[in-house]
Each structure stands twice: as C-alpha cells, then as structure tokens.
Amino acid sequence: METTLSVEEIRMRIKRSLSRTIWYLLICALLLLTSNLLFKTFIGEFFFPAFLEYEIYVNVIIVLGLGYLIISSASNFIYWTIRRRLDHATASLFRTIARIIGIATLLAVLTSIFDVNPAAALTIGSFTGMVVGFATQTVLGQAVAGMFLVLSRPFKPGDVITVVGQTGIVKDIGIMHTVLVSEDGSKEILIPSNSLVTAIIVKARKPKTEDDVG
C-alpha cells in the first residue's frame, strides 16, 4: 500500500512526524521543568523534604515515556524523508538505525539523570556505542556501495549480467540490492550492493543490428 502513496501524501507524513517530534520535545522539557519547580519549591517547603528524593524517579518516568515517543516520531520523520527518494526497504533500514541511535541516546540521558559514577557511565557508553556500531556497520556499508553503483552505473536495467555465480536481466538498481530476473522469468535474484562492488561482473553484449553496422 505504501508504494501507491502520492508525493503530496508523503509530504504530509513528513510534516506530521516532524511536528510531533517538536511537540514531544517541548512537552518533555516543560514536564521536567515543572517537576523541578514542584519538588524544589512547593513539595520541599510545604510538605516533607524527604519527598525530594523521589524527584529523580519522576524525571525518569517522564524521560522514558516522552523519550520513546520522540524516538518513534523522529525515526518516522527520517523514514518518510528518505521514502521520497528511495524504496520502502531502504527507508525502513535507516529508520531502524535511527531508533537504535535514539535508544543509545536515551540510555545516556538516563545515566546523567541517575548521576552514576564515571566508570559506570563509560561502561554504558561503550556498550551502547558497540551496539550501534555493529547494527549500522553492514547497513551503512551496503548503502555506500549502493550509492556508488547508482552513480557509476556499470550496468543498467535491461542488461544481462553474470555476477557472484548468478545470471539474469537487471530489473532494478537499488541502494541495498540490485534485482535480477532470471532469463526464463521464473524468479527474481537480489544481489547485495557490497557484493557487486567487489565482484567481477560479466555483461552480455547485445547483438549488433543493421543500423549499428551501417
């Protein structure tokens, strides 16, 4: 269904996801400010000062709840922005990367709220960095290779090529994969972009016509 969306519909979804992200950020900042004022002035002075220690838990709930909404809307904004130019699969991969980075950022924010010691903060930062690195390494490598293929155009749709042991007619050159159709039309073959960049590609020559000879 997403492939039938018009350009105007995609633009509307981009604006909607961006506006939601901004609103969630503003609401999160407002709630944190309100929590700080309540605990530092009203509750601390007129009720029990012991309640001040619960401020951190209230802030964590605010950051977790609004943080999830911010990550979700921001990743959707990235998805629809990329979706204007590229296919659904590629846009979904970048949305997943954005969510992973967002979760890592959320963990870092929670670490600062709890005011953990530097050693623990370093451990959490190293762990989240490692997760993001492993999650994005293959995807970004594929994306860079795909952009190289799109720019260099070593072959084009309609060409018959043999690569990594597969022969077929080029149907589409995407960021993540190049789609080949078998010569009998019975199947589609998806070749990862990074495999194409480093592989030997055999392109069949089209037979000469009388116009070419002339």
What does it look like?
By secondary structure, this protein is α+β, with helices and mostly antiparallel strands. The chain folds into two domains: 2-115, no CATH class; 160-205, SH3 type barrels (Roll), CATH 2.30.30. The chain is 66% helix and 11% strand. A hairpin with a 6-residue loop joins β3 and β4 (188-192). The radius of gyration is 26 Å and the shape is elongated.
Topology of helices and strands:
Blueprint: H1 7-46, H2 55-83, H3 88-114, H4 118-152, E1 160-163, E2 166-173, E3 177-181, E4 188-192, H5 193-198, E5 202-203, H6 210-213
Antiparallel strand pairs: 1-2, 1-5, 2-3, 3-4
Helix pairs in contact: 1-2, 2-3, 3-4
Number of helices: 6
General shape: elongated
SS-derived structural category: alpha+beta
Walk across the major sheet and give the strand order.
4-3-2-1-5
User: In total, how many beta strands?
Assistant: 5
Sheet with the most strands?
A: 5 strands, antiparallel
H/E topology pattern: HHHHEEEEHEH
Rg, Å, rounded: 26 Å
Overall pLDDT score: 76
- Taking pLDDT < 50 over at least 5 consecutive residues as the criterion, the unreliable ranges are none
Share of residues in helices: 55-70%
> Into how many domains do the coordinates divide?
2
N- and C-termini, Cα separation: 48 Å
Beta-strand level of the residues, as a percent range?
5-15%
